[in-house]
Amino acid sequence: MATTRTALKIIERAFSKAGIKPAEASLTASEIEDGLDALNDLLAAWGANGTLKGVNPVMNPSDEMITPREADWALKSNLGVIISGEYGEQVNKILLTEADNALSEFLSATTNLDQIPYPSTLPKGSGNDQDYDWYSDFFEDDTEENF
Length: 147
Known about the structure:
Blueprint: E1 2-6, H1 7-18, H2 29-48, E2 64-68, H3 71-86, H4 93-110
Antiparallel strand pairs: 1-2
């Protein structure tokens, strides 16, 4: 399910996670611009490597981004890591772990296992849905019947 979020909400949360600004503090125009640039860099990188496809660059902080709900945590925490580095802050180990876990959870939630090819040597019932005769051999080179 896709949820609608503004880029500003993601940027504000990333600054908060990075420890640069408390959640209740407003970001300056230059911080918002930095966050927007970093967010677009992250979206471009994830689009190029296939992590998050089909999300266009964000032009204005008030623009709505339509992303899968599973991507929000990964975007916020990974953007927080990027912003920490850009602002010369020591990246918090907890934030690094969170960013890694969030990305792993996002990838797990959005990976389609139906697209993974199974080897022909895998017996039916273990994921192999190729034409298979239960009474014939599991392996192509095996000439003996199993039953």
